[in-house]
Amino acid sequence: MADYGWDTEREEAFAVLRSDGLVPGRVVRAERGLCELVTESGPVRAAVPLSSDIEDRLMPCTGDWVALRPATAADSAVVVEVLQRRTAVVRSTASRTSHGQVLAANVDTVAVVVSLADPIRLGRIERILALAWESGGTPVVVLTKSDRCADTGQAAAEVAESALGAQVLVTSAETGEGMDALDAALSGTVVLLGPSGVGKSTLGNRLLGENRLATGSVRASDGKGRHTTAWRELVPLPHGGVLLDTPGLRGVGLHEVDEGLDQTFAEITALAQDCRFADCAHTVEPGCAVLAAVESGELTGRRLDSYHRLLRENAYAASRTDARLRAEQERPKKDIARMRRAINRSGKRNG
Fold this sequence. Notes:
The protein is of the alpha/beta class and 351 residues long. The chain has helices spanning 8-13, 15-19, 122-135, 152-161, 179-185, 200-208, 258-264, 266-271, 289-296, 301-319, 323-350, and strands at 23-31, 34-39, 42-47, 65-69, 78-82, 88-92, 100-105, 109-115, 138-144, 167-170, 189-193, 233-236, 242-245. Strands 10-9-8-11-13-12 form a six-stranded mixed β-sheet, sandwiched between helices. Strands 3-2-1-4-5 form a five-stranded antiparallel β-sheet, with no helix packed on it. Strands 6-7 form a two-stranded antiparallel sheet.
């Protein structure tokens, strides 16, 4: 269990549950209604009671620690409780509900994987970094496929400007470049995040020292990767810690990432302290230190645009759970609609 992250603090907190006949386990793979776990006595497949009134945060996810009621002659093993998560990578769901989707629980290192074989999309990196910082884990940006990049130094420098506070590593699973540095940077439970085709599973196999994770080629038609990883799975690393491989992310919606955005755009957060107005939006306000930094070249316009775009998205996501905030955002639309109706009525009377 220690190999999977069980420690003294968790053991002490679990004492009461042990007295009730429950045992701890970590979710290696989760499915609807079932999950595979590692326990003190070995691997276990357990049922997860499904209930319409159970909150999403209580449903086990890969990486979760749970309280398990062991199997008996009459009953199968069953998950009774999901233990408190120390960290969690959460994104907005694809549906229009207000709930977030937990991608990985209790992670220590979040590896944001970016392929150097493709054009670098800084906005996507910033988006994933916001989730990574918000999770409570330590983000590391891993640039893969360096053997297919003409100027890795320039690419790394470009990414580093958008990944403030995060270590940026250049690697190649094919040649072995940067793998020792990557091993040193990763600790505890490591999750690999990124779209399909960036080389997450290939990178994971290199870290594992065996071809355990399924890999696939990138489509020649559009350069996009195939989804060879179909589920999230927890796998022990040979030098300690565990690896959590994830399917490629088609979409990365933001979900309550206020602190994550402050960390991702740390230079804008710092500049904002010198704005004339405390509630400066950094758009047209006089005395805005952020806009002044753009004019002087200290801050790029692209970086500020990305910040504004992600702020708007995060605010919209928050409005889906906050009725008052949602009403405030809808008020301008209603005012415009009311004005148009008044104009139409006036036109009809004059006609």
